[in-house]
Each structure stands twice: as structure tokens, then as C-alpha cells.
Queue: 4 jobs
Job 1
Amino acid sequence: MAFLELDNLRKEFGDLVAVDGVSLSIEEGQFVTIVGPSGCGKSTILRSITGLETPTSGEIRLEGTDITELPAYRRNIGLVFQDYALFPHKTVFENVAFGLKMRGAPKAEQRERVEEMLEMVNLEGYQEKYPAECSGGEQQRIAVARAIAFDPDLVLMDEPLSNLDKNLRTSIRSELRRIQDETGVTTVYVTHNQNEALSLGDKLAVMNDGHLEQFNDPETVYRNPQTRFVADFLGRSTEVRGTYHRQNGQAIAKLDGGIEMQVQPSETLADGDQASLFLRDEKLKLVDGSAPTENVLEGIIESVDYRGRDINYFIEVPKIGQTVQVSHIADHSTETFHALGDTVSVYIEPENVTCLPADDSQP
Amino acid sequence: MSTGRARLPELKDAVMENDWVRFLVSPGLGIGWVFLFLFLPMTVILVISFSAPGDFGNVIYEFTLENYQRFWNADVYKNIIFESLVYGFVVTLLALPLGYTAGYFLGRSKTDWKWILLGLVVLQYWVPFIIRTYAWIIVLSNNGVLNQLLLNLGVIGSPLNIMYTNFSMILGLTVSLLPFMILPVYVSVSAIEEDQIHAAKTLGATDFRAFREITLPQSLPGIVSGVLFVFIISAGAFLAPTLLGGPNTRMIAPVIETVFILDFNWPFAAALSIIYFAIIAFLLYLFTRRVDLEEALETGAT
């Protein structure tokens, strides 16, 4: 039995279907990220788990108990809000202690626990300050401390880093992961940022338009996207159209431009099906004439973006009618860089070409 | 048209750069305006209150404490001021829960009708106070709307005598001063982010505790300004006691008017005004010290 189960969750706002039949199982102690573009329903799921929204249909179970109709204040679930929602008229101590106070914890216990929490988020001695006297990053950590202090069964985070600047985001991201490791509290983290999604979670759920597209560990989701949306949303890739074939135990695709490519075998595609191929940009390599002959695309350098540490080539491949981006670390001692207009060969390994059923609505 | 639009910023600059305009809006002159329109009349009243009344309503500018001694020696004026403050207190006590409830729901509500409802709150101020007061007479008098309704329904056998009593005056004052309670409460409640209340609930607060811990403390500035408005205006009410009150209703503002206009005793009327002003100022000082006004306003603003 999973720790937290969403069973066919559905939420409508008038005519709008925000969440359309999502089922998800989360194990105890896991750090799960839900990623998707804005409006995909991820925040609605979070609010349904906390009890701030009541789902239209479906069930939410925590340790096997149906909590779908339970009011928020009886759930014992912590939530970190996107804008923190700290209480401006209360001190940091009163903010962090709020959950304990509501549970009738004695003052001494509150003091001890708040001190412990503030130590964990590196804000020792902040008890008597007011939120307005703290920086954005500090407020963010106070919000985390407040959501964990009362020892909840589950902590939910709704885009907690989106209001911070880029440098702070990276450092607090690793701090959040450390806090989760230290406390071991089951965490569900919602974001639209794919870097956060890939780096933070033990498990990654990708959502689009109210649907759950894929749910697995981040590496599997990244390497083997199950839907066109996931392939397109995570990382950068070039989409090419073709037909899928199985020949001599090998999976190949015949591209519309007339070339054949070896691809990653697909479970959903049958011989002769229309397929979309996703070539991961970072897996594309420049090769010289002596290298493999399979899976090589001929192209012309369209522009060069030299960035010191690495170099980006934009290569127009006439056979597929698209420009691909190849970047690699610039080796200044041995390499002679390609110039505009050079003809080059680009190679990609078959396992880095994902084949998915083509979407007929696309041209 | 296009040239006119292009010249608008220039025009604005020219106005702002103009020495006369800058002089007229300078802070020093601002203090001058306050002095001219507020302190100067008060000073005149203060001077008159220490002068003696002449035989034909004129003021004899000789320093005397006579007016203050007269106040001190007669209980009647002390009682009237005390009663005025009691009426103000009662009206405030009635307006607070009514106005807070309305302001709270307007502040929290997400209905599209909110602006219309807020408009209705202030709608009565489109009608002059004296006409609104007369409207109460039509409603509350012995053959007024309310009594006719109750008679026709058979609830009462003979008309209730509610007009020209303390009750009708307090009712009229409370209703007409409600917007002064509703609006500041509305402003302070609507400034509270809804997520704060959500946060309190996820942390284990029931609706009531979330209200007590989060909404109520942060709407305190609204309560304070509402209470100040309603109390000061109702304790110093003039038209309501005159038109709605009964023979036993005694309030300070109509009494001062009588001394000014009928007795023609400007110095004594001025002394009563100064004494009343001093008492109100002292009460406000006590009140604001007690609620720590500045702190309440500060936390409300962040």
C-alpha cells in the first residue's frame, strides 16, 4: 500500500477541467516533483491534497485512509506557498511555532522545536525578527521551517523557489534536498522549472493539460519519454517525422527526407506506423569521415556561437529540413574550429533517438 | 492633437518648475494652511472663552475665568457632556459588530457584485444628512411606516412611541455612521492575503482560530479608525439629537448651539467647546495609548 494515493482525481472549475483523472502513488519518505507548464493542474492537485480545494470526483488516501473530505486543519499536511504566506504581524518564532500552537504544544516544546527548525534552515537567532525584516531567501526558509515544524505526515511545496533570483534558487534547491534527507519527510514539490524537477526528486511526474503524462524516476523520464509532450518539455530536442519499422531485430525509422536511422525500440509503435523522432540536442556529436556510417546526418554550419568553455554550432541538415544545435566543450589545444558554411557530419546513437506515435494534428 | 500630446509632458514640467506653484505646494506652506484653517479658529475660540460676555451678545476682551468657573459650579453641563459621551459609546458599541461583519464579508468576498455593494454602503451620503434624518421620522413616527405595518399585521394594538426618544436617535446615528465602520474594516481586511488564511488552516487552525490569529489582529487598524470616526462623530452629533431625539435627550452640540444663538453668550459657548474638545482629546490619547495605534498601523501596512 502506497503512503499517499491519488485515485482518479478530477477537479472542475465551471467549464474548465483543471485536473482530469489523475492517479498517482507516492511511497513514504519519497521526494516527488510534479512538473508541467502553468495551468496544467499541478497546483490544483497540491491544494486538493492539503484540503484547500475539494476535488469534483476521485479519492485521496493517506496511509490507506480516505482524506478527500477531511478539512485542511485536520490533515496534518504542511504546505509551502509560492509567495510564502508568512504572517506579517507575527515574529519568526510565532510563525514557525504556529502549527505547534494550534496543536496545543507547551511553550517549552515550541521553543525547543523552533530553535531546532531555525538551526536546520540556517537562521539561528531569527526568533524575534518579523518577516518584513528578512530577505526573500530567508522568508522562503522560514516558510519551509513553518511547514515542517509541527512534524507533518507530508510536506507539499508549491513553486517555492520561483520568487527568488537565479543564484539563490540553486543554493536553496540543494538546501531543500538536504532538509528532506535530514527529516525524511515525504515531500511533494510542484514546479514548472525542468531543472528543479530533474535534480530534486526521487520521482518525477510530468503533467500537461490536467493529465499525468509520465511518472517515474527522473532519469527514466528523461531518457525514455513516453509521450510527445514529455519528450518536448524536458530538455532540448529536435523533432523529425518518419515511419517506424522493425528489421532483423533492430528498430529503424525511415525519415520523410529519405534517410534511415536506427532508433530506440518502441513498445507502442508497430511496423509501418507514423512516428515522431526526438533527437536529443546534447547527444548529437560532430564526427569526421572515418566515424560510423549509420545515423549520420550531413549538414552545413549555419552559425557558430563560441562561449569560451564550449562552442555551439547551428547546423542546417537539408535532408530533414531543420537546423540542429550541437554543442561541445571546446578543446583549444587540438581542435580546429569549424567555420560558417563548412559541411560536417552529425552522429547520434540509436538509444538517444526516441520514437513516439506521431500526432496526427501536427503537419 | 499630436502636437498637443507631445507638449503635455513639457507643460507638466513647466508647471512643476514654476516657482509660484512650488511655493504653493511646499511643506512649509502646508503647515501654514493647517494653521490658518484649524489652529487659528481654535485660537480665536480659546481667546473668546477667556473673555467676558457683554450685555448685547458682544464679547468684552478682558481676561476672565468666569466662563470656566460657571461650568465648574453647575452640574448640568458636566452631565450633558457625560451623556454625550455615553451616547457616543453606545452608538460605537452597536456600530462595531454590525460594521465589522459587513466590512469583513465585503473584504473577503470574491463576488462580482462587490463594487455595487460598496457603492450601496456610501450611497446614503449622496443624500444630505438632514433629509436622511427626516426619512427616519417618516419611518418611525406614530403613524409612520413601521407602526402602520405592525398595526396592519396585528402585532400591536396601538402605535409604539419610538419616535423622539433616545432609541430613535441612537438608531438613526448608528445606521448613518455605519459606513465609517464598514469602510476602514473593509480596507484592512481586503489587504490580508488569502493565502495567509489558507496557511493557517494547513497548520491546523479552524476557521475561527484562523480568524482570531490572522484576520482579527491584522484588521485592528481598521477597527481603530472606525471606532474613532464613529465615536467622535456620534458624541458630537448635532442634527440627530435635535430632530430624532426626545425631550430627555441632551447632547453637547445642540446645547452649545443654544448658548451661542439663543443666549447670545459667545464666551460661555466657547468655553464649553474648549472643555469638550479637551475631554475628547484626552480620551483619544488614552485610547490610542491603550491600543498602541502606531504599532497597529505598522503591522497592518506590511
Job 2
Amino acid sequence: MSQVSDPVILGSELTPPVGIRGTSLLRRSLRLWRTRIGVALVGLIVLLAIIGPYVAPYGPSTPVGAPNSTPGGKAVLGTDYLGQDVLSRVLYGGRSILVMAVIATALGLVAGAAIGLVAAYSRNALDDTLMRGMDVLMALPQILLGLVAVAIIGPKAWVIVVAIGLTTAPRIARVARGAAQPVVERDFIAASEAMGVPRWRIVSGELLPNTLGPLTVEASLRLTYSIALIAALAFLGLSPNPNGANWGTMIQQNQLVLPVQPWGAAAPIIVIALLTLGTGLIGDGIARTAAGIDRARGDE
Amino acid sequence: MWGFILRRLLLGIVVLILVSVLVFLATQALPGDPARAILGRSATPQSLAAMRRQLHLDQPVFSQYWTWVTGLLHGDLGTSLEAQEPVSTLLAPKLVNSGVLVALAAVLSIPLSIAIGAWAAFKREKVFDQASSNLLLALAALPEFVVAVVLVILFATTVFHVLPAISTVPPGSRPWNNWLALVLPTVTLVIAVAPYVARIMRASMIEVLESDYVEMARLKGLPERTVLIRHALPNALGPVFQVIALNLAYLAGGIIVIEFVFNYSGIGGAVQEAVINHDLPVVQALAMLIAAVYVILNLLADVATILVTPKLRTRL
């Protein structure tokens, strides 16, 4: 422990370290090419999903020709197994996946961070109880819990979002707790406690800002998984609207006619692949930047 | 060390008990009527009552749970509502099929990913390292069913026509009777697992290669090959076991989608089918089975990590 009379050391011990805030981490990660390419890919697909329905040549369920016709004529990418325009369905089919994935990830992030930080801060039986509970949730693969929830309550959008969010939470909680544990031992936390700062203010005002780096890295990874999971559930035949345009549903519906008309499945595959590649690249860029920052701090 | 293993074992059992409560609550005691979920809106009051009796829903929640759990422990997994057969008879052949698929994927992906990771660490920042790490990053980002359907387009239906697009295992037949049909599902599983294992292997190997004893081995003038295989590799494997176990456990979930893509008759496809048919006893049994696989794999990973890490072996 440093001498109290030393103002410099006193300062460094009692004020929170200048945490790597989430926003500054994101900005720094943009210096890497992989992050830029990722942002460009995600931006492109998000734009496609948002403006798609306004520029689609046909409605998502309008029959425009014979089933499974190859590209050409009225349908640029051909028609699907029901004679609907593949391009139009791709343009319509992204919104629900994107919205659900973002909400589910946000839900998991908030719940997981809260649980992980409270567990790390409590340092008592509550910590054990919370984390064992998280272990139980993690003993089942995410997709299985999603399927069980859908089997019981039905393939409604909120069920899928809550199921994916709830199963994302324990994975975030682990990271949050791991990142917060060393911070809890720091003197500025003890100082805040001595000053009588309410506990929830310490968790939200002191712990949270100091764990934003690892949480951002994990959140970007989890977003990729959420997109894949929600698309996979639709692919398995479980989406809020079984006949609506949805990239996952499209791949499953047109998989059997691949030999005749590959585009019905290939077009949604390409957009999903570009989207998850994009989020994956962004996540990797953020992780690399965070690792670089950690290393730089360690060398100081 | 035995004390530690015993503790992990007890913890695993506690987790499984809690999972059974969770699965039970989720499938049977949730607000809403499972009998109605199974039978649909057109059910008559009589058929609903009969279904409630069959599911023991007319009994108190705790005794429902007790009946179910004691049944599980005796190997009685209930009766499938769809097939009207005991769940165990229904799932046994599928379990074998999935086991073959996962074992094959594990046997191929583990040495492959360890080799890729180790070589990338050895050739750090060189062409092989950069190419493999970018490729693995891309493969890790793609959802399994996307990888699976892309493989189907490439090798079965559109570009080349060398492999079957469907890998159904007919009843009474064994997966190894039709090797060709196993290729695409196995490759998909390998692609789903290898990136993570390779990445952690690379990181672990880099750490080991920078250590003093590897430096020492090199200074002694040992050939680089010996240094790499005899001195560095075994010590780099420790952290990798955890990731391998996690990924094999992940495969238990991954096969749900992959078996569905290839219409492979395993427990993964059975999960999808049971969910679509609201076959609750089958869903419950499969959820417990997959959770048990997960807990056992994690336990094995912990034990393996201790066995290969001398520091832990002596301390515990």
C-alpha cells in the first residue's frame, strides 16, 4: 500500500482508472481494415433489409411465374418453389431477423451484465448462487432452449427473442463477472463504499464503466450468434410467420429444389453469410483492439 | 487430485438435477396447458382430460416431477406421443447414428485443428498463419446450416455432383453402410468446430514457444522438430482440452440443425421433429440427454486438464 502523503500515488489509487470506454474502443477498432470491411458489409445488408421492401419489384407473396424458374425475364433471380420472386423475398426477408437479433442480444447484454456485475460485487453466497444458476442455463445449447421454448409457447417473435436473450445472458454474465472481479478489489471501490455511495451506484457507476471493454468484445460475438440462431430457428421451420419472407425460411423451403433452381436458397444464403461475416469481422477487430489496449496498459 | 475430481463430479450432478428441474418446469409446469399445446385448438374436453392424465398433469407438480425423474433414473424416458412407442426404443438407434457422426467429426477435427493451430503459431505472422487465421475467422462466423447448404450446392446439386445431398439412414441400416452419405455432414461439423480449437491452440502454442524451457531446448541444439513436437506441443495442449470439450458439447446442439439439413436420422433431427410435433416426452428426454453429454464432457475436460498440467497435478 502506498503512503497516504504521496499525492501522485494517492491519486492513482483512489480515482478510477481511465477505463477504456466502449465508444472509444469502437472508434479505435475502426483503424483496422477488418473492422472497416465488417462495418461496410453489415451496413450494406442492414440497408438492404431496411429499404428492401420499398424497392422490391414484387410483393413477398405475389406469384410472378412458374415455380422454380431460373433467373431471367420478369424475375431477376428466378422464382421459388411457389413461383414467388426470389429477389423480392430476399429484399423483404431481412427485417425480422435483424430486429429480433438486435433486441435479443441487447436483452442478454443488459441481463447478463447486471447479473455478472452484482455477482462479482457481492463476493458472498449470492455470487455462487447466481453463477451456478448461469451454469445450469449454459448446460443446454442455446438452440435447444430456443426450441423447447418455442415448442411450449409457440413460435411467436417475443418467445424467440426472450429465449435467445435469456440464453445469451449467462455467457455475458461470465465475462462481466470475470472482468469485474479484479476491479472490485481496487481501492477506489473501497473508497466509494467508505464515502457511503449506494451499492447500485457503485455497480453502475464504477464497475460497469471499467468492464465495458470486455463486454463490448463479447456483445459483438454474441450478436453474430444471435443472428445465426434466429436464422437457424426459421430454417428449422420455427419463425413467427411460417410463410412470410424470411432468409432462414427461404433456404429451407428451396433446399429441395436446389438442382433445378439454386438461387432460391443461394440468394438468402449469400446475404446471411455476408451479414455474419461482417459482424464476425467487426467482433474480431474490436477484440484485437481491446487486446492491444490491454497489452499497452500492462506494459506501462 | 481425487478430492478435486470428486468435487467436480458432485457439482456436475447438482447441475444436472437443476437442469432437470428447469426442463421439467419449462415443458410441463409452464403457464398454459401442455395438453392443449399438444392437441391443438380442435381438442375436445374428453381428449384434453385423457392427455392430462397421460402426462400426469392431474397430479400435484412435485409428484409429477418425482414420477418423471425416477423414471429417467430407471431408464424409463416415457412414451412418445407421436409414435406411441417408448422414447428409449425410439431414440436408441438415433443415438448410435448421432454418436457415429459426432465421433467421426471429433476424430477428424481435433488433430486437424491442433495441427493447424500449432503450425500457425510456429509460422507466426507468416503467410500460413495469416491465411489460416483469416479463413478460420470467416468459417467461424458462418452459421452451420449456411455452411451445410453451401457444401450441398458445391458438391451435391449444382457445381459438382459427387456426393449425396441427403444422408438418410434407413431403419435397420447403420450409418457406416453408406460412407459417402456421411461425408458432407461430417465436414460441416468439422468446419463448425475446428476454427475455435485451432485458435486457442495457436494462442497456447505461442505462449509455450516463448517460454524459457523451449528456449533452453533450442539452445541445447535440439532439432526444431523435436523442440516443437516433444517439448512445446504437449505443454500447449492443456488449455485446448477445455475448448475441445466445450466444442464437442456444442456439437450436441449443432447436430440439431446439421442433421435436419441432411435429413440424417439422429437425435438432432429428432429434436426438431419432436418440437414441430409437440411431442413433449421426447423433447424432455432429448434435453436431458444433451445436458448430460455437456456436463460429462466438461468433467472430462477438467480431469484431462489436470492430468496434462503438472503444476495442477501436484498442487491439488
Job 3
Amino acid sequence: MGVRILGVSLLAALALPVGAQAAAPPDPLAELDAMSRASATIAPGMALARGQIANGELLGALATLERVLTYHPESDEALLLHASLTCRVDDRGGALIEFEALDPDRVGDARWREATASCHTVRR
Amino acid sequence: MFKPVISLGLLLSGGVALAADAPQVVGINSAILGDARISSPTAPQPRPAVLRARIALADGVQTGARSQLQVLLLDKSVFTVGANARLTIDRYVYDPNGGRSFSATVAQGAFRFMSGRADRRGTSSINTPIAAIGVRGTIVEGVIGPDAVAIARSEPGVPRNTPADPATASLIILRGPGAGTQAGLVPGAIDVTGGNHTVSLDQPLQAVYVPAPGAAPIGPFTISLPGLARVHALIFPSLASRPGLVRSGGGTPYPLPASDYGHRPPRGVGVLLGDPTGGQGPADGGRYIPGVPTYDPGAGGPQQGYGAPAGQQAPAQQPDPARKPPPPPQNPSVPPSGQQDPAAPPPPPPQVPGKP
């Protein structure tokens, strides 16, 4: 009897949230927490930023990369993408300062070309 | 019969008052570096900021030397404050299906604000002690205090010997998005009001300087890239300490901000725009960007680093009598940097009544 009641309860518990999740709006604070958590380390932060870029959220991606760089200022990858995005929002002066902080030889040809595509050609 | 009605009315009004007193959460501490502290109207004693703790309306954010805090607001707008800054979110109205309107005060230090969504109506504002910035969907940065004076003094767009109040002087810069922005972003604009005069900015890197209470904004002028690099270093002290930011051969190509933000200055002015050598390349190993016009920080003004002939550097900065020494740490037990472990599990929410 107790087992049956437990089984029914589990089914109900599993079933209810599915419907509830479909209807409930996302918790904005939980979303902010997840964004903060993801950008505390480089790889998840870069993934989040690239996802935001894919969704056209350039300013959100900039903010994500700024969080990554807060903890990992040594990350060429994050700074390069930040500089590229800064160009894409038409702030070329700001982007130039960031490109200057990077060593193109360390970044690599392909990444450098990708990042600077929005900022005219940057001679290495 | 009359008495119970009055009592019920008092109880109800008391209940409403309690609900109204509950702090309105507007965002979270999304990134923290160094000594960052939070105070609230109900707990005015500043306490260490906790990563991902909630920020409520009227909470006071303050940072120490070489410190930085990013606040992520509900609409995904972002406020970042750098070293020795004071920020308060005074008003915040957000409807996920409608718009966002807010008012914030930056009393001191350097900040960067990025809109989470376009706000074309201009109902959001950032106030400094002597200037009001009307924000219309934009990226805006500012410096308030002695660093603003130090940076403005080196700007060709600011008249020499401009009297300034080092406590409240405000330098405001529009960073974008510009008209050439991508992904359908709305170009940003700001209106800066000081001394009953308003100046509108709608181009990235346009700046205004409000030197003292009651003074009209000076500008708009295009901030020099050395000046912009100094602002950047104030907002992001972690990047200012990035290895490799000092030019090869040593030396600093431009004067540093007054604040103690780190050991190594950014190398920003090593970049040269245009190619004045006709393709020979810069003697100091800097990079040119073909196709981009040579940057002119101000008509008639001296070149400061950018575009200057190789080997010629900006003059050394004179000691600034307006500079105040950095304040001592408020809590010596707090390490100067790396206070928060981003890899650590999320800390429990702060013990503030009414906050989740």
C-alpha cells in the first residue's frame, strides 16, 4: 500500500512539473545566476558568449566576456572575441586598444583573421 | 462597532507598509574582483559583496583599490564599477513584455553601463554628483573624481587650465553602438546635462567633461585613445594587470590614471592608425590598420601617442595636486584581489530580511 502510494506520488510529481514548466515563465534571477556561473571559467564563458552572439545578443556577449576577463585577464581567446565584438558595435577605437594588448603570434593566424574581420585588416 | 473597524484598518495598513518595505530585487552581483562591499538602507554598514547575491533597490555598491564589481540587472543590462567607486540603483522598473526604466547614481569612481535592451524613449538616467546622463540604449562609460580631472587635463578637447572640482568632476564617454553596428542593434546616444546645459552624444568615443558643480559640459569632443585606455584601466583593473600589456622595451607611452589600479599600465597607445610610414611599418613594432583614417584626438591638439612619430612619446604627466591618495582598505582581512573564488559553489544568499 505504502509502495503504491509512493509510486503514484512519484508519477504525479514527475508529471506535474512537465506541464508546469511548459507554462511557467523562466525565473529571471535563476537565469542571471546561470550566466554568472558560466562565465566564471573560460570554456563555459566562451560557449555562453558564442551562443549569445549567435542569437544576436552582442551586448550580452560583451558582458559575458567581461566577466570571464575579470577572473581570467590572461585569456587571449576572451580578449580577442571581446575586441572583435567591440568592433562589431562600431567602437573601433576601443577595439584597437584591446587588439594592441594581444600578441598575434600567440593568438594564431586563423583566430586573428576571424577576430579582425570586422575591423578592417590588422597587419600582424 | 466602530473600534474593530479602525483596528482592522490599522492592521491592513500595517501589512501593506511591511510589504512595501521589502527590498525590491533588481539584479545580482555577477562578477566580483577584490574588495567590493554592499550596504542597504536597513543595513547601512557595508559588508563584503557575495558573488550572485541579490542586489536590491537603494543598495549601495562600493569598491576598493584594484577592485571591480559587475551588477547584472533583471533586463540583462550591466553595470560595471571599477576601483574606488560608489554606485546606487535608485529606481528600476522592468516589464519583461514592455520596457525598462531606471535611475542610478555613481558618486565616485569609474563605471561602464550597457543596456540590456533598447530604450529609445530615454527614460533611464545615470547621475553623477554634478551631471545627469540620459541613456538611450547604449554603452556609456564615465569617471567621477580626481581621475576624471587627471584624464581630462590630457585631452586636447578640454581647454588648458580648466578649473575643476576633484571630488565631483565627471568625464562621460559614449562607447556605442555606433551607426555601423551589426546584429540590428540600435545606435546608442546619451544626453549629458550639467549647469542647466545639455549636450547630446551620438557617436562612439564622443565625450563630455563636466569639471565642477554648476559648470556646463565641455564638449562634445572625441576622447583620445590614450585617454580611453586610461578609463578602461580604471573600469577593468584586472585587465590593467594583464601580462604583456607593457610595451616591449619598457616605458609607458602615456601618463597613467591617478588611481592606484595595478602595477602594469595597458599598452593601448602602441597602436597606430593609418600608415604614416608608407608601408614600412612602425619602428617600435606597433601595428597599423590599413583603411582606417589616422586618429585625430582633437583639432589643433598635440598628438599623444597615437600617430606620433616613432620614438616620440607623450610628455610625462606632472604631479596632480588634486589627486587624493587612495583610501586605506576598509577591512584589512579582505585580500586585495581574488577575494571571490569563481569556481567555488555558489554561496548562500545574504542574510538580509526580505531577500531571497
Job 4
Amino acid sequence: MNDYENAIEIKDLTKKYDGFTLDKVSFNVPKGSIMGFIGQNGAGKTTTINAILNIVKKDEGEIKLLGLDHEKDEYDAKKQIAAVFDELPFDDRLNAITIDKVFREVFEEWSSETFFNYLDRFSLPRKKKFGKFSKGMKMKLQIASALSHNAKLLIMDEATTGLDPVVRNEILDIFLEYLQNEDHSILMSSHITSDLDKVADSVTFIDKGKVLISGYKDDILYSHGILKCTKDDYKDIAPEDIVSARLNDFGAEIMVSDKAECSRKYSGAVIDPATLEDIMLFYVNRGKKEWR
Amino acid sequence: MKGLIYREFYLSRKTVVYMLLAYIIFVVMITMIIISTYAGNLAKSNDSADTRDYLLSQMYLYAGLIGMAGCTYGHNDLIEKDYKSRWQLYSYTLPVHEKKIMQSKLILRTILLALGFVLAVIAEVIFSAAGKVPVSTEHIKNILVILFVYGSMCIIDIPYMIIMKTQNRGVAFAMIPLVILTTAVGYGTYKFTKFCYAEAARLYPDMKGDAGMMKVAMPYLTKWRDIFLWAGPFILIGIVIITYFWGIKELKRRRY
């Protein structure tokens, strides 16, 4: 049994494509935690996840999964990993009973009992073909199969995208339940930041192939804030304090990355707490500095 | 690997069943026609013996083709469906080496092909019994030729489809060498037929129609077939080995 501190360790991960580069991406997912991996479409989330799963061959960098090298010990690592994608990767002609029979032979620790318990819990039929499942049912099925082989690490790529709030909530509850075991960890990529607000312990924000922020969610939310002021006051704000500013007819909303320092510096200014969505929005527009 | 084979079989089984049904209907119908040439309405016809000879000399080939193509067709287009359903991508997240994936595909394809071959032989046995003639070893040899030719194409189709991803694209690309090959074979056949007619005119001037030409052609065809029967197993085994390593390489190359 290998001992590890981080379920995922990524150091200087680089992958070059024509027109896009994943540039020295580094972050860790601590064991027993859930990390939200956020960024707009095309930011590099899926490429990073595919590199972690060794679906994409990295150009440079190191990736460790559960303390194991993701290439050298690929199959040992994958025995303990479950991947969940935004779409069900099973043929429409299959049903849950067949999937159980297939995975029973693929995963050493596959538990039919756990799988069928999840199906019952999600009210998923056993014999119905997947082609007749709704999107929510398909995602629940994927999660049921992901959680039925005693995986220690769950890697999810946009798993909650396209689901209604009720199903999303139900699925998030399952994740929290899964994390009750302190050996379990989750990396969850999403651009639905409200989901991560609810469940994530830490967050990594990627944009244009580069990691902009990575750390504990509470620290990130605590340090960032939205300073609201008039257009005249905006001119007095030091450029180094501004991530970016949203201007409107009445004034400006400025994202600051050191709320405490800015509170001292600009006493009297109103600094509202920022949500992950605000942070994402302001950071994505950081190149423009001012936007509407 | 058992799980992977099971999945592939499960997804191919319906096509196999439908084609099996077509095979059964074909064999039953031909058998009834053969029996009818001596014990039914066709027996009243003057050329009933010719009809029976014709059916016995040709129909086992069609039954063999239906059997072999029918058994493997459902598995042939599974790779395209795996790309569409994203299983191909998902399979990289499983603790399964590319070797196992290729082995599972090859094992099932070979089993289905062998099943097709057995069906072809069964059809020959049934037709022979219906025609009250012994099972022809010549016919079995011809079925083996079909097995080696079709089997090789069917097996090499696995890595080919991994590259092409869709049947349409695969067929479109295959048309280029196929057109060249067909033209070459067509031209060769034309030259050979012309040669046989010329020889028949010289050697058997009294024979009517194509009989003389066939008499000249048959020793050549039999000789070539027998040479191919020796080479066939080696070609098929060679194709299986190439397919295995090529398939693994292509599966690895899919990891962009």
C-alpha cells in the first residue's frame, strides 16, 4: 500500500497543440478533499483531465495519482480511479445488467451489490436500454458505476453540466457522502461555479491553458472582493490592486485580490464578498482591465 | 478481458441472430428446391437434373458467404459505434491494457468467423444430403478459400476501422486500392478467359458453348486454388499477427 498526501499531484504539466498550449499547469488535490477545477470553455480543463488519465500524452511535466506515476503505474492507478464524463460513454443498446457483467470482469473490486444499491437509490431501471434514459438518468448511472469499484479518486469532467438543479443537488449529495471516507478524493471540473460553492474544499482556476488561482476555496473567497465605487473614485485605485474592473453608467465594480489590504488602503470603500463566478468572470477579463 | 469480450458479443449478437435467420431461410429454401428436382413439381421438368447440378455447384458458396459475412458483420461496425458512444475514449480510463482490448476484439472476431465457416460447411452437408450426393471435398476446399480471403479482410478490418472511425470513411478509402485491384483482376480474368477460349478452339473444336473453355480453365483454377489452400493458413495467421500489433499501435496512437 503506497502512502500519499495528495490524491493528485501535477507539476509543470505542458501540452502543446496548434493554437493552444497547456502551459506548466501545477496543482495538488489533497487526499480526502474535493477540488473544483474551473475555467471557461476551451480553458484547458478537459485537456488537463485527459492528461491526468493518460488519454492525452503530455509533452512535459509530472503527474502522480494516489502516489503512483500516471504513466509507469498507469494500470495500478486506474484500478483505483473512476472517471465520469459529461456524456454517458456506454452504448445505447446496453442496460445496467450488462454493464454489471462487463465491469465485474474489468475491475477487481467491482461490487454488484453496491452498483445495484445505487441503481435502486437513483430509481434507475435494470433492464431498460440506456438509449431510453434521460440525461439525468444517464449521469446517475455513470456515477453509480464509478462508485461501485471502490475507487479512491473520482475524476469528473463537466459531470453536472446540462442537468437540472434537482438532479445536480442529488448528485452533489452523493459526492459529499463519498467523501465521508477520508481516503476518497474528487477532482471535479465544471463551469457551474455554484455547484463548487456548495461542495468544493479547494479550487483551481485555469484560463487559456494557465493556472491563475489554486488553493483552498475559503482562502480564495476570503482574499478576493468586489470593490464598488464611483467612476471618479475608480481613477484613484492603484492599478496593481485591480484584477479587472466592470464599468457601468453609475460607477465601477473592481475585483481585488487582497481584500484586507484594500480595505485598509481605501478606507470607506465598499468591498463586497466575491463568489467563484465573480472571480472567474473578472479574471477572464483581466486582459482588458476595464470591461462592461 | 472476459468482460470486454462479453460486451462486444452482446452488442453484436442481434445482427448475428438476424443473419443467422437469413441463412436458415436461404438453406431451407434451397434444400426444398433441390428435393423438388426429384420429388416435387420440378421433377416434372426436363432439365430438373441440370437445375439440381447447378444448385449443388453454386449455392453452397452463397450459403457460406451469408454465414461468414453474417456472423462477422455486427462486430465489424462496432468500432464505429464505440467511437460514437465514446466508449473508445472511456476505455482508456479503465485498468485495461491496449493488448487486452485488441485480444478481446480478435478473439471474438475469430470465433464469429469460425462460426460462419461451420455454417458454410453445414450448408454444404445439407445441400449434398438433399441432392443425394456425397459431400464434395472440392466444395469444402472452396469454402476454405472463402474463409482465408474473407477472413483476412475481416480481421485486418479491426485496426483499419480504429484509424478510419466510420464505415463510410473506411469504405471510401478502401475503394482506392479496391478499384486498382478489381481492374487488375478484371484484366487478368479477361486475358485468361481469352487464352482459354483460344486453347479450347485448338484442343476441343467439337465442344459447344463454354464447355471447352471451362475444360481448359479448370486444371489451372484447381491448381491455383490448391496453391492458395497451402498459402491461405499462413496468410491468415500472418494477418492475425499483423492485426494484433497494428491494432495495439493504433490504440496507443489514439492517445493524442
